[in-house]
Inverse folding.
């Protein structure tokens, strides 16, 4: 069974249709890149899957539960890192993680254990007592990711998890995602091609709200004469460099 | 059946509790709650003793004290509630909240209860006033207790409006202005000047929707069931609107 399944999601803002009949699926143990240029409809699609936006049409299931008719159950199985990694800056890292653990129904003892686990996984143990507002961007991203996995969900949706990070921070974040990928279904929104090649077994390419490809990075790259993913991206999105 | 209900309610209650504690911490770990309580106490004292002429009445009761509560709540409570949803929208954390496994009403109620707790704390800190009138004479303590209860419920009404406006406006300043404006309408509807301008029939109808009119009944020492129902219904109505406006953001 697919841990995450999306069928024919559509969304318009006013007259502008930003997502059109998007369908995709992710199985446990699979890391799928949701690739597309800026403004392609990636974040809107992820927001609909996470239950933050209501689709005009279509449906999404997380661990078999519908995000429309069984929202609470679906969201229990989901870890969601929203675009920009929003955080409560006035809280300490520990308080923030404890808040999220409580919302997921973890007892005090379970929360303590979970915070220790995610602090270790996200390499934030040394800043647990720090106010979030004092942390660097890289740490904030990791804190947000730790918050997304504090309840150990089977499905992870990460919206541009490495955006704005320096090269060292990117390597660390990718290593963390790779470690988690063995057991979880992970959907990563990105427009960074090196990220796709480094972490993902499959790529779903979206442009102007429509799915243009759903295949392996290797097969996608092979669609161009150069065999480069970058050229395939250009070919399928804007076509400026069609091979 | 009860077990099934408990299974469904548990995530909502977990989130409600977590939101309540988080908001309470946001109030008390920053100067917000302390400044609010301090200024409320100064204002209520000034109004009671200076404008209400507390000592000139020569009566051991708290009528001059309760007299100004509707107007003080009207201005002060939007100040503590205006940030509740506007801040979430501004900081992007609304997306975080709405992706939590809980119904929207649990978020709404959790935030409201935290703000109501701060209002309750401010009200509780006026207790020395109650002790003073007992020291000065023999007041009707049941009537005073009723005044406190109804003031607390009225505060809930003003807060519920402010919470809803914070969700609707998405901006703190706009939320504050709208809350005061809407709160004023629901207060002024019970003023005699409004009643005399509209005639007795319409005035009675309007007064039945006034936070002020129901509070004045309590000040006479009369506990009216319809006033209790009104305040609780009023709070429920505005919290429902709050939930609808928060959910409305899902539509994009």
């Amino acid at each position: 069974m697919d841990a995450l399944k999306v069928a024919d999601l559509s969304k318009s803002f006013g007259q502008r249709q930003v997502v059109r009949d998007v369908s995709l699926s992710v199985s446990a143990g699979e890391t799928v890149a949701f690739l597309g240029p800026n403004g392609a409809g990636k974040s809107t699609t992820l927001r609909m899957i996470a239950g933050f936006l209501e689709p005009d049409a279509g449906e999404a299931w997380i661990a078999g539960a519908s995000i429309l008719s069984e929202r609470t159950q679906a969201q229990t199985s989901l870890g969601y890192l929203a675009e920009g990694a929003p955080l409560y800056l006035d809280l300490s890292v520990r308080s923030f993680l404890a808040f999220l653990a409580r919302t997921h129904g973890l007892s005090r003892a379970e929360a303590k254990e979970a915070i220790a686990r995610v602090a270790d996984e996200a390499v934030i143990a040394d800043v647990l007592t720090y106010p979030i507002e004092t942390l660097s961007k890289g740490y904030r991203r990791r804190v947000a990711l730790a918050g997304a996995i504090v309840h150990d969900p089977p499905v992870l949706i990460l919206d541009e998890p490495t955006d704005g990070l320096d090269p060292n921070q990117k390597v660390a974040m990718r290593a963390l995602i790779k470690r988690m990928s063995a057991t979880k279904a992970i959907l990563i929104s990105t427009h960074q091609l090196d990220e796709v090649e480094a972490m993902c077994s499959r790529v779903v390419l979206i442009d102007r709200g429509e799915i243009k490809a759903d295949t392996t990075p290797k097969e996608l790259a092979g669609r161009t004469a150069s065999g480069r993913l970058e050229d395939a991206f250009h070919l399928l999105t804007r076509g400026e460099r069609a091979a | 059946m009860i077990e099934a209900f408990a299974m469904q309610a548990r995530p909502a209650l977990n989130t409600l509790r977590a939101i309540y504690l988080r908001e309470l911490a946001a109030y008390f770990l920053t100067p917000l709650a302390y400044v609010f309580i301090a200024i409320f106490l100064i204002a209520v004292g000034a109004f009671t003793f200076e404008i209400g002429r507390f000592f000139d009445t020569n009566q051991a009761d708290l009528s001059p004290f309760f007299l100004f509560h509707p107007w003080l709540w009207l201005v002060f409570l939007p100040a503590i509630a205006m940030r509740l949803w506007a801040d979430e929208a501004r900081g992007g954390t609304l997306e975080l909240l709405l992706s939590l496994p809980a119904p929207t009403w649990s978020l709404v109620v959790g935030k409201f209860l935290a703000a109501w707790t701060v209002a309750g704390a401010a009200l509780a800190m006026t207790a020395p006033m109650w002790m003073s009138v007992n020291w000065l004479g023999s007041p009707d303590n049941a009537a005073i207790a009723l005044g406190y209860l109804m003031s607390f419920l009225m505060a809930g009404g003003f807060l519920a409006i402010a919470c809803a406006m914070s969700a609707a406006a998405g901006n703190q300043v706009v939320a504050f202005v709208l809350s005061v404006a809407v709160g004023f309408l629901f207060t002024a509807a019970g003023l005699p000047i409004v009643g005399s301008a509209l005639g007795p029939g319409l005035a009675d109808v309007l007064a039945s929707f006034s936070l002020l009119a129901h509070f004045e009944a309590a000040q006479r020492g009369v506990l009216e069931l319809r006033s209790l129902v009104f305040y609780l219904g009023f709070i429920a109505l505005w919290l429902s609107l709050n939930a609808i406006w928060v959910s409305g953001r899902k539509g994009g």
Observations:
- The first helix of chain A runs from residue 42 to 50.
- Chain A has a mean pLDDT of 90.
- Residues 70 and 155 of chain A are 16 Å apart (CA to CA).
